[in-house]
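Preliminary data (for renewal application), shikimate-3-phosphate complex.
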Amino acid sequence: MGSALLGEVDSPGDKSISHRALIFASLAEGRSELSGLLESEDTLATSRACEQLGAKIERRGERTFISGLGGVLKRPPTGFLEMGNSGTAIRLLAGVLCGQGFSTTLSGDTSLNRRPMRRVVEPLTLMGADIRSTGQGTAPLVVNVCAGLTGIEYASPVASAQIKSCVLLAGLFASGVTRVTEPRLSRDHTERMLPVFGVDMPGPCSVTGGSRLKAADFTVPGDVSSAVFPLAAAAMMTGSKVISLQTGLNPTRVGFLRCLEEMGAQLEIVKHTFPGTEPVGDIQVTFNDRLQAIDVPETRVPEMIDELPLLMAVAATAEGVSRIRGAAELRVKESDRLAVMASGLRALGVELVEYPDGMDIKGGSISGGCVDAAGDHRCAMSLALLGLVATGSVKVDNAEYIATSYPEFSADMNRLGASMRMDTDGLQRPAS
Ligand code: S3P
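Predicted structure:
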């Protein structure tokens, strides 16, 4: 068992917003200045791809300057675009690239090349794109020159910001208006940010073809999806108090914070401001008492889609049985997150029942053990946190992908008083 966690964390730049800022500034006319961008494996993949397409990107300390392409992508990238582990990067750039006058191939690592791409290939094909996936509907994606794109009204079957953003970005290069609706609102950063980069939206979640992006100065807030790890740890560990500074509080992203509060954590938002497109605040979590189980409302799932592995870990320490349903999307993330978390939690002595779209988790004591994060950053960090409250040490294998979203994770946790070690072979565990 670890000791109390105390202090402040500067959470890393928001990953979703960083991808968009890099892509929008690279497409724009003029020179943008971006502050607070996340520097991680995922955003480096996007940044490299934008440079391959001709954008000039210069990083000076905290600030990044991008001279954009002026809305016209004149030449094909040198070689294919390697998007690493990032679903956001490949799906958003597929939208950008399918309306251009050159062919491109987009690919990723083993995990990304297993993830479903028909969800973007289908709407882009409806718009007139010539885009091909493998027979299994996965990347590599080959984008060929087409006769031109036509705007569509697309009713996405999935609440997915990646699908929505992909179609809207293709819509910028299509004729007429493109509009996307979805079964539930997914994160809305694209809709908030496009107007900042000069795009007039003619209606909700709509763009008019031919709109040109213009350079902007833009500040990326801290990533609530990273901040939740130290905050959740504070909620689980007696005597803890952790503050995550200037963190994004977009209503489409705060489902986990609401759950944590409902489970009994003492949560307070201070210095709540709205400096740009996103609400931001300092989030303070103080240990209250043992957390109570929760029945996660299905309607909240899109607002905490990336935080569900962490909720499973937290639920494993809470009193009672927690219930998650309506989360089948977790099976097609960086890993099958339901399967990876179920096997990790079982290895630490947790009783649970796995369902096709969720899990019931009985809270109790956590034993030490060895678990496999299967190369999934969020599962790795969620399981590593359990090492802080376990009766023995917890070793997480295949945890090196933490660097895709939160390279400073173990350093931040240790600064607050935890005891974690990232070994060169990618192991993450509390040192005994
Ligand atoms: C993201 C959207 C979400 C999320 C991912 C980032 C984005 O995926 O899981 O980590 O930046 O648009 P879906 O939109 O596919 O649910």
